Amino acid sequence: MTKRLIDCAMGRAKCDLVIKNVRIFNVFTGKTERGDVAVAEGRIVAIGSNFRAKRVYFGKGRFLLPSFLDSHIHIESSMLTPEAWATLAVPHGTGAVVADPHEIVNVCGIEGAEYIKRAFARLEKDGICPLDVYLQLPSCVPATPFETSGAQIDGKESEREISRDLFFGLGEMMNFPAVLSADPDVIRKIDSATALSKPVDGHAPALSGNALCAYAAAGIKTDHESLTAEECLEKVSRGMYVQVRCGSSANNLEDAARAVDGYNFRRFLLCSDDKNAKDLACRGHLDDALRRLVKAGVPAKYAIPMATVNVAECYHLEGLGAIAPRYIADMVLVDNLKDFHVSAVFKHGVLVAENGRALFDGSFRYLPVSVRSTVRIQPVTAENFRIVTHGGRLRAMQIAPHSIYTKEVFVTAPAGELDVKHTDLCKIAVVERHRATGNIGLGLVKGYGLHGGAMGISVAHDSHNLVILGDDDGAMARVCTLLERAGGGMAVVSEEGEDVFPLDVAGLMSSADAEEVVRRTGEIQARARNLGISEGYETFMTAVFLSLPVIPELKITDRGLFSLSEYKIVPLEEA
Predict the structure, then answer these.
(1) Does the predicted model carry a pTM greater than 0.70?
(2) What does DSSP say about strands 392-399 and 440-446: parallel, antiparallel, or unpaired?
C-alpha cells in the first residue's frame, strides 16, 4: 500500500478518488485552503492539484472537514436499532462513535453488547462499513447496589471481558462514590482496563478539589457531567478531557462554551450521550452540536476539532480526525462553517451518504432471541400505586428545566390516602421488570405538570425497570399492563384513550424503520404533552432519568427513594 500512496501523490499512478474544488479545513492550524484532495487505498494521499483520478467528485467550493466523532453515546437511547440509527446519523456526517451499551447490558448482560456490535457489522459491504463503532464495556451494571437490573457485572467478570477484542475500553464510571472510597471491586474494573492501555470514561457531576483529583488519579480521563463553566475549567486543569454534551434531555453545551478558549479548546470533546430518534432526524447529530456551539460564541476553528481530532487523540484512534496524508479518508462536505449543513459523507473514500440520504441499506434487522421478550413483572392493580401517609412532610423530586438534575423538596399532606389530583404533584413508580420480583418504588414529583391520567416507559436509566408517572392509580396500573404486553415501550392512558408504542428490542429500542420510530414516538410524545407536562421537560426523556441514582439529588429505584448525598434509600415520609 505504501508504494501506491507515494505513486498517487507524485502523479505516477491514478488515485481512486479526487474530490475537486473544496475548501479544506485543517484541524492542526485552524485555517482553510483551497484545493483538491486525493484518495487511494481508503486513505488521503495528498492535498493540492493536478492529480490523476479514476473517479472525481466535484465539491463546488464547499468546505471539506474530517468526519465527526461522537466521544460518548448510548445508541439505545435513540430507541432505534443500530442499523436504523446509522441510516439517520451517517448522513449528518458521523463517521465513528465511542459507544457505551450500558443500557442494553443492564437488561441483557454481555449478550446485549454483542448484539450491538454484530448489528452494526452487518452494514458492511465490499469491506466498507459506513460507521466505526468503538464499544465500551459498561462499568456499572447496575449503576448502584440500590436497584434491580437484568444483569450484574462484577470486577472479576469485567476483568475477563475487558480483555476481549469486543471492547475498546471501560465505559463511564458512574459509581464515583465507590471510586473515591477505593472500593476493591470498582478498582479491579479500572485497573483491568488501564493494564491493557484501554481508556476509562468518567461520570463525575460536581466533583471538585481533592475528590476530583482522586477520581482522575484512578485513571479516568473524561467526563460529560460538568454543570458549570467553572467545573469544566477545573477538570481541564486536572488533565481531564471535558465532553460537551448535546443530547435530547440534557446538555451542558452553553455552559461549557463559556469555558472554551484559544488555549484549552484541545481538551474539549463533543458528545451526544442520549439523543432520541426525532431529534436525530430533525436536528441532526454532531452537526447540530457544532451549529449550537458556534452560535454560543465558540469560533468554528475551535469547535471543529472538538468533534474530530480532539476525540481521535483522546482515544488514540489512529488515522482519524484530520484531513492529511496517510489519514483515513473519512470526510464530510458542508456548505459553511456556521450552519454545518452536510451535503456528502465519505467513508474510506467511498461516498456513503449524500444530501441527507444514506447510500447503504439499513433495512435489515438482526434480532437475536437474547434481546427479545425482556419485560417480566408481577401483576399490578391500582392498589399497588396507593400512598397512605401519617400526615406530615413528604419528600418530592423537583426537576430543573432542560436538565436531568433534581432537588429534594418537601411537601405537606394530611393523614390518610394521598390524592395528588388538582395539585402540582404527580406520583412516580418504578416497577421491577427483569425478574418479576414485585418490587415497586413509589415517590412524588413536583412541578412536572402531569394530570388527568398516566404515562410510562420501559426505558429508565440505568437498570431500565418500568417508570410510571400519573395522578390516577388505575391509569398507572393500566400503563404498566400495556408495557408488559408490548414487551416494553412507551404508553399513555388518559380520558382521551390509550396508546402504546412497542420497544420490542430489550424494552429499549424498536425494530421498526427509522421513519416509523420518528413518527410514532412523536405522536405518543404529543399525547403525553396533552396531559399538561410543563415546558422545559421532555415528556418521556426527562422521566427516564428520574430513576438514575448517580445523578443528584433525589431519585427513585424499584427499591424506593434514593438520596445521592446520603447515598442510601430514604423514606417518602419524613420521620
Answers:
(1) yes
(2) parallel
